[in-house]
Design a protein that fits this description.
11 strands; 155 residues
């Protein structure tokens, strides 16, 4: 093994990571989100912005949704300690809380799995609340697994 990079993030504990591209990645943890980009021989970090309406919670899981024909920028979905899902626009470093039409589990989301459109059989519903994935499987601390469609409904 060869160490390619080490860097100082912050004092908060990291809980999840994900690659956005060969030269950038994201790290989430206890009340923070950081976006790292390669510059010269190292990486530089920038803080994610939760916004005024979103509570800053420990982000316990992460799934990167790669850019595709429908969504030209990559997105990140993070699961929080209270069951909230956040959708991050990686180029702007901002997030919005997902408000599904079905009540969410109120325990930490420990696992997220993205199922792309080429493997999921989902209709072409394109409403204003549509998200950058076809199906998303979440697993929580309660042991409950939920499969979500792009429109915020469960399957």
């Amino acid at each position: 093994r060869t160490v390619v990079f080490t860097g100082k993030g912050n004092k908060a504990k990291p809980l999840a990571t994900g690659w956005l591209s060969p030269s950038s990645f994201a790290v989430s943890g206890v009340k923070y989100m950081q976006f790292w980009t390669q510059q010269h021989k190292g990486f530089v970090s920038r803080k994610g912005v939760f916004g005024l309406k979103n509570r800053i919670l420990p982000l316990t899981s992460m799934q990167v949704i790669p850019e595709n024909e429908k969504y030209p920028e990559s997105h990140i979905i993070t699961g929080a300690s209270d069951g909230t899902l956040y959708v991050w626009e990686s180029d702007k470093r901002t997030c919005s809380a997902l408000k599904p039409r079905y009540p969410m589990d109120k325990t930490a989301i420990n696992s997220l799995v993205y199922i792309p459109s080429n493997t999921a059989s989902v209709g072409e519903d394109r409403n204003a609340n549509a998200l950058p994935y076809e199906l998303l499987l979440t697993g929580g601390r309660s042991g409950k697994m939920t499969c979500w469609k792009r429109d915020g409904n469960r399957t």
